[in-house]
Design goal:
alpha+beta, 3-stranded antiparallel sheet
Length: 192
C-alpha cells in the first residue's frame, strides 16, 4: 500500500473510532507491517501539527488516537458545551430519588415517604425534564404516575436505572411509623 493511501486509511479509521486504536489492530486491518503503520501515523501526526490543523494524531502507548488540537480547545468547548446539569434543592433531590427507585410513583407515594407536601418539587422536576408523566393509576381519583426521563440518566451519567446503587426500599404493606420504630433500635447501654 502506498504511503499516502496508508495515511488516509489510518486517518479515516482513527476519526471513525474516536478512541485509541492499537498499532497491531491497524496493521491487521490494513494488511501491512506494524512498522509501516508507525511510520505512516507518525508522518501524518507531524504533517497535521506542522500545518497547525484543527486535529492531531496522538501516540498513546502502543496505539494512536485522533484528537482536537489544544489550540482549538476554547472553540470546541464553546461549540459543544453541554447544558449544565440543573441544580437541585435537597427536597427536589429527595423527590427525584423516590421517583427513580419506585417508578412509576404517584405524588401521594412521594409525600408518604417524604412526610411533607411535594407539589413544588414534582413541578420543578417536571420543568427540568428529569421526570415525566407515566400515565394514571387506575384507582379513584386516577392520580398521575411519574417516571424518570432520559435527561435524568444523562444528568447523572448513567445508562440505565440498573446502575443506581441498591437501597432498602420502603415496604408499603406496613405503616411507615412501624418501620421507622423497627429500624431505630437503641444500642444496649455499656456497663462501666
Amino acid at each position: 500500500m502506498e504511503q499516502s493511501e496508508l495515511q488516509r486509511a489510518i486517518e479515516a479509521i482513527l476519526f471513525a473510532a474516536g478512541e485509541r486504536i492499537e498499532v497491531n489492530r491497524l496493521a491487521m486491518a490494513l494488511e501491512v507491517d506494524p512498522k509501516d503503520i508507525i511510520a505512516a501515523a507518525d508522518k501524518l501526526a507531524d504533517e497535521l501539527s506542522f500545518e497547525r490543523r484543527g486535529i492531531r494524531i496522538l501516540k498513546l502507548e502502543n496505539g494512536y488516537q485522533m484528537v482536537s488540537s489544544g489550540e482549538m480547545a476554547d472553540f470546541v468547548t464553546k461549540a459543544l458545551e453541554t447544558r449544565k446539569p440543573p441544580k437541585l434543592s435537597s427536597s427536589q433531590l429527595e423527590t427525584l430519588t423516590i421517583v427513580a427507585y419506585y417508578q412509576p410513583a404517584t405524588k401521594a407515594m412521594i409525600e408518604q415517604i417524604r412526610g411533607v407536601d411535594s407539589s413544588y418539587s414534582v413541578s420543578a422536576l417536571l420543568n427540568k425534564k428529569l421526570i415525566e408523566e407515566a400515565g394514571r393509576l387506575n384507582v379513584p381519583g386516577r392520580p398521575i404516575q411519574y417516571k424518570t426521563t432520559p435527561d435524568f440518566l444523562r444528568t447523572f451519567g448513567i445508562s440505565s436505572l440498573e446502575e443506581l446503587p441498591l437501597i432498602e426500599k420502603v415496604n408499603f404493606g406496613e405503616p411507615i411509623e412501624t418501620m421507622e420504630q423497627a429500624e431505630i433500635q437503641e444500642p444496649a447501654a455499656e456497663e462501666v
